[in-house]
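Write out the 3D structure for:
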Amino acid sequence: MQDNFSSNFPSLTHLDSQGQAQMVDVSEKAPTVRQAIAAAKVRMLPATFAAIQAGNVPKGDVLATARLAGIMAAKQTAALIPLCHPLPLQKIAIEVIPDAELPGYEIQATVKTKAETGVEMEALTAVSVAALTLYDMAKALEKSIQIESIRLISKSGGKSGDYSSLG
């Protein structure tokens, strides 16, 4: 079965010839500038959204804490995702954008490096942890907050080229 698997997916670089997980060897690749943008949505009741917007949450500044958590998470991605390379990150920007129509927030992370491999996982980890932190900070107000649509918006740089979900 392993031979059939590897023959069906020969370009999966995280698998060896026996189909076992491996860390990709990037030592022969030249460092290039790479950037990834990821996003997530956090949906909540209008009253919870209003309380966060007004700064009226028992645990403190929900949005600032979520931004900081996202930055810290991006820096720890290699410790959390087993086959990720530790990378020197030159930029991590987290935006928590209010959306009254949701109601809730869109969280966006932009991560940039000059390295041998990309930063998609760092951006995705950043928005995931920022969203979880937003939930943690506001759960006293509402337990039914929903984290949705964690996704890669775009990436640039590297051998596989650019990608954008925006078209």
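The longest helix spans residues 120-138.
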